[in-house]
Amino acid sequence: MTLPPRVTDRAFARLAEIAEMTGENRALRVGVLGGGCSGFQYDIRLDEAASDDVVLEKAGQKVLVDPTSLPFLQNAVIDYTDELIGARFVVENPNASSACGCGTSFSI
């Protein structure tokens, strides 16, 4: 059985802030695509749910993971960070054997 990633309270709170600012309550999609400098890259964007998505939800905010990406994100943590270099959603992935410096691509 593949365990879904965990989403931090900070990530859900940021989704709520985005919904309040935009007036739209869209979900955060976190997926994995082939490519990037390390072999795979994260696809993180606001989106609508598909019928086969795994939906992680808290206080009306949703994070979506498609079935193909789920094994790559097993036991990962989806968080939101706001640092001097920028603010963004990040994935802490224990399945990645290496990652590039920007944090958006990885290898297994």
From TrEMBL:
It comes from the Bacteria. Coiled coil: none annotated. PANTHER family: IRON-SULFUR CLUSTER ASSEMBLY 2 HOMOLOG, MITOCHONDRIAL. Residues 7-103 form the Core domain. This is Iron-sulfur cluster assembly accessory protein. Pfam families: Fe-S_biosyn (PF01521). InterPro entries: ATAP, ATAP_core_dom, FeS_cluster_insertion_CS, HesB-like_dom_sf.
